[in-house]
Each structure stands twice: as structure tokens, then as C-alpha cells.
Amino acid sequence: MKKHLLFLVSFLLISQYLFSQSFTMEQVGKFSFPSELTSSPSGEKIAWAMNEQGKRNVYFAEGPDFNPVKMTDFSKDDGQEISSLSFTPDGNWLVFVRGGDHGGSNASSTVNAQNLPVLPKVEIWKINLESKKAEPVVEGDNFTIGPTNQLLFLKNGQVWKADLGGKEKSSQLFQIKGNVNSLEFSPDGKKLAFTVNRGGHQLVGIYENQETPIHWIAPSFHRYSQPKWSPDGTKIAFIKTLGGEGIAFPLLEPRHIPWEIWLADVESGEGEKLWKAPETLRGSYRYPFFAFPSNGEIIFESYEDGWQHLYSLDVKSRKSLLLTPGDYMVEQIKLSSDSKKLVFSANTGNHALDIDRRHIGSIDLASKKLTWETSGEGIEAYPVTIGNQGKMAFFSATAQRSHLVSLKEGHQTRLLQESIIPSDFPQSSLVTPKQVVFTAPDGTKVHAQLFEKPGGPVKKPAVLFVHGGPQRQMLLGWSYMDYYSNTYSLNQYLAEQGFVVLSVNFRLGIGYGYEFHRPAYGYYQGAVEYQDIKAAGEYLANLPQVNSEKIGIYGGSYGGYLTSLALARDSDLFKVGVDIHGVHDMDQRYELPDGYEVSPDYEKAKEVAWKSSPMPDLDKWTSPVLFIHADDDRNVNISHSTDLIRRFDELGKPYESILIPGDTHHWMKWSNMIRVNQATADFLKKHLMD
């Protein structure tokens, strides 16, 4: 009788806890997500895109009031993203791309998440800021705007021109062998520097007009990228890396990858090396930011001291200067329109927890003074400068409030567009994740965030979330990436449902230095990072409030790979999992083109790749699994899921699955995102709570 009474009391307590949930998946999925923040080269104007439950539109604000104005009227959840939002140099037009999936390969290919009989177009659009009229200019992508409002874009690897005024039809600017992949106008707009890929090498060329031959800059058998004009237009700086298709180097041995900064005279085309990366593993890794703000200085980003930092290179002395010293990383770097200031986001501040946040920093290039513009418990990202009075804008979030545009004037900061937050968005009900640090078996410190709703039963089920990328970092608040704002909302929902949720920042992720980001023997070369996943599961199992027999796991993309690896290797620990568009087939990493010279450790590398995948451990996989994949995925081909599911079918192993036709890796259609999230939560609840 006492046992029955105890069971009844426990059941009532658990039921009361579960039925006290205050919000739905759809409600928390209504988070605001701005993107494409940009500022005008002249005046005090800013613009951004906002995703409101799949309805993506452009907003504009101008000083001194900066009242947001909606500039487009796209009113459907149609899966058509907005990207590349830019002002023209005169500040009178906004130009953007509508369509495609610019977070994946084949970005310019149309997305038909609605499965319409007629495919949507990927188009370049314009907005006249005086008339507020928005209209398409041309079908295309990858545009560049010149100093006199010239509009160029890339189409099938060639350069085309379009007329913003709409008086002339688009036409090809010039013809050239190979695929053009970047464009840079000279400061006066009379010349165009470009890079063209010709197989094993990539050249920098200059186009001037139809009568003048293409002028090649220091041509060689290497790969040139990121050409930048000096402000006076007489020099071009660029990055030089190795050409060719590779040699028979050891595949499993970490090695230095050289890269150099070169400077060339535009008139003669002759170039010289200014700087060479240190011949170390840290010195191998470069980041895309590269600028030529003054005739005597080049700014670049490097990992050479173990953290992603900004450096100034003096053109005359050829000496580099570290601009952002400290144990933190910088990202989302922007040069002001007058080339006098750099602004960026970094994971540092006056509190130890800031390594798992983002704050805004700035550098005055004349004095090299570094100033931290924001601090506190929030997340700030993607800064831009406004005008010449020290104003700036950036995205700002907290643990409870998703990202909005924030404006900083002097010491005052204010949010724009707070009214856009839906009335039923459960901001006040969201938990604040706690920083967790534990140690992997080999001694590596691993950071994570713990989501838990107060109260509830003595023993709760738990879920481990594994991010994708893997070059990502989950934060102590809403992410500045749309994919991870989504998973953050799902983690909040799972916590509301009664789970203890742990989001783990495993090795191969960013934010904790080079050795953490680029460990030897990661992924298909040994999956060293899996020990971080297992250690995270064991951390959950050892929490006093967690039922160690009720632990699940879910993740997408690279996180889907690690989810399947966890279920295949440790079904005794992870009782259920949801693998969302996961990577599974490691053998394809070593598919070689004809004539490729085989490395001495080629067969060993293939064996290691096989053992790094879930395939050899399928016989030990006993936990229930839900596979989810969209079939227009441009990041992880759907074959990764179809092939693994076929193995399950042939082995007679049970599974559940959801195929979403027409959408991509990033759930371009909001309703698909909600469907995936709800299915994930329901599957975990079914196996861990029922």
C-alpha cells in the first residue's frame, strides 16, 4: 500500500511539473533574427534584414532618430533568404540578393522549399531610398558595386554588368578562360581587379576596358586570393598559397600549410613578398579578413600566437604588430568607411564567463588604441560603424531576449525594433544557461552550457546537444547564427519540458585557442573529439538531479555525425538520439582523382576514417534513433542519411525517419524548422519520459 501511495504521489508531482509548461515550441520559435547589418559609406544610415517566422524583409534607419522603416513587403514563409545587403557608395540605394542558400555550397542555386511547380529565382534587388520602391534588377548573385554605382555580378564564372537605373539590359563585361570568383574595383572605379581559377593555379588580373588586354599581376603557378587596392590605386596586395592538386605527403600527420602576403605594382605587374606566415602549425591557419586601409599599412588576421587575432603589417619595414593581444578570438571584423577604425566581436571581457559570450571591440588605426565598446552578461555581434561621430550598431541579445539591432552613441546604447517581438514570445519564461567546465579523459578542458528549469522531480531525464560546423561555439545566450538561435530555442523548450539539457562545446570548435580548434586526429582522422561527447554524457549521468538511465542526445550536421557515433559506440549511456542531417560516410574523404599520387599512409588513413565513423559499430547500436534530412541539402548531401538508413534496413534495425522534400540544411522555411524541432522533442520525450 505504501509503495502504491509513493508511486501515486511521485506521479502527481511529475505530472504537475510537466503540465506547468508555459510555452510551446512554436512560441519560442518566434525568436527575432536580424542579419546582414550594413552602414552607408556616407551619412548616418543603416540597414538590415529581419527574419520574422520565415518572412524575411529589409529594414532601414537613418540618424539622428534611427526609427526603423520596413522597406520590403515579403509576407510569406517562402524560404527565400536575403543576403549581401549593401548601400551604394552614394548612399542612395540599397542592393541585396533574394533567394539561394548562402550558408551552403551551390549558394546561387534556387531554393524551392514550397515545392512550387515554377522554380523561384535568385535575383539581385534594389531599393530606392527616396521613393522606398523595391524591385528586382537582374537574375544573378555575387555582386560588387563600384565607386560610381557600377553594378557587376558573377554568372557561370564570368563577369556581368547590370544597370541600377534599369535603362540597359545586363551583359557580359568581358570573356575569360576559367572561373572568376572575386571582384575589387580600384578606388577611382576605372579598373577592376579579379581572381580567376584555372585549375591548379589562380591568378589576379586587372580589367580596364574593351580595348585594353587583361593585365596579369605577378602570374605564377600558385593560388592568389583577396586582392586589395592601396588607397592611391598604385598597388595591389594579395594572399599567396600553394598551387597544384597536392603531393604524396603523409595524410595522418599534422603539417604546416604555408601562406604569404604579397604586394604588387599595378602598372608593371611585378610583385614581392611582404610577409610570410611562421612555419608552425599555428602559423598555418589564416582567416579571411584582409584590408589595405592606408598606403603604408595592411591589416590581416592570423592564428600564429594561438588565438585568432588582428595584425598590422607595415609596408615599408615589413614588420607586423599584434593589435588584439590576449587569450581570446576576434571575428566579424569591419573596417570603417573612412578606413580609420576597425570594429569586431570577441569572446573576452571583465568576467571569466565572457569566454562563452561575445562583446564588441574597436581599434583606432592611427594610435592602435584598443577599446572595449560593450560588456556585461549579453551577447553582442556583427558591429558596423556609422558616420564619423563614433556611432556604431550591432546585434544584441541576452539569455532570454533574442537578437535585435542595438545602437551605440557615446556611452548610451539603445535597442531598435523591440516592438517586433511577438506578444506570445516567452521571453520571461526562459532559463539562463549556466557555464559548465569538465575534463575529458586526456585532460582537455571542455566548456558547456547547462539549461535547467527550477523545481520538478528529484530525478530528471537529460539531453545532450551537439552543435554542427564543427567550427562553432555555443554561448551563454542567444546565438548570432540563425541555425543556432534555432537550436537554442529548442534547448529552452526541452528545459521547459522537464529535461536537464547540456550543450557541449567539443574540440574542433572555436573560442578556446588553436590546439582546441585544430587538434591532431580529429574527425575522420581519429575522432579524438568524441571523448568530449562521451565525457559530457557522463557529466550529465553524474549530476544528482539526473536519472542516468534516461539520457538522450541530438545534433545536426557535424552534431548529427557525433550523435550517430555516440549511439553506435555507447548505447548504454545514450538511450535515444535524433540525428539531423548528419555526416556518416568517412571513406569519401579519400576518394582520389585520376593520376593522384598515393600517400605512403593512404591505406592506413582509409582504415582510420572507417573506424572514425559509426559504421563499424552498428552491431552495438541498440538505442532508438530518429533520422531527419531535407533533400536539397547543400552542406551534407542527403546520401549520408540514405546510405546509413539502407544499412539499418539491411540489418533489420529499427529506426524512425523524416524526409523533407525541397528544403535545405538551414530550414529555409520556418514551418519546416518548427516541424523538425517538435519532432525532435517529441521523440526524446517518448523514449525518456513515457
Q: Give the number of DSSP strands.
A: 40
Structural class based on helices, strands and sheet pairing: alpha+beta
Residues in helix, %: 10-25%
Radius of gyration: 26 Å
Which CATH class of the largest domain is shown?
Alpha Beta
Q: Number of DSSP helices?
A: 10
CATH topology of the largest domain: Rossmann fold
CATH architecture of the largest domain: 3-Layer(aba) Sandwich
Q: How are the strands of the biggest sheet laid out side by side?
A: 33-34-36-35-37-38-39-40
Annotated CATH homologous superfamily of the largest domain: Alpha/Beta hydrolase fold, catalytic domain
Tally of discrete structural domains: 3
Main beta sheet = 8 strands, mixed
Please mark out the parts with pLDDT under 50 across 5 or more consecutive residues, or reply none: 1-9, 11-19
Sheet-strand content, in percent, reads: 25-35%
The coarse silhouette is: globular
Average pLDDT figure: 94
Kindly report how far apart the N and C termini lie.
Answer: 24 Å
How would you describe this protein?
The protein is an alpha+beta fold and 690 residues long. It folds into three domains: 176-323, Neuraminidase (6 Propeller), CATH 2.120.10; 326-418; 433-688, Alpha/Beta hydrolase fold, catalytic domain (Rossmann fold, 3-Layer(aba) Sandwich). Helix content is 16%, strand content 35%. It contains ten helices and 40 strands. The chain has an eight-stranded mixed sheet with strand order 33-34-36-35-37-38-39-40, with helices on both faces. It has a four-stranded antiparallel sheet with strand order 1-2-3-4, with no helix packed on it. Strand 31 (404-409) and strand 32 (412-415) form a beta hairpin. It is globular. The two termini are 24 Å apart. The model is unreliable at 1-9 and 11-19 (pLDDT under 50).
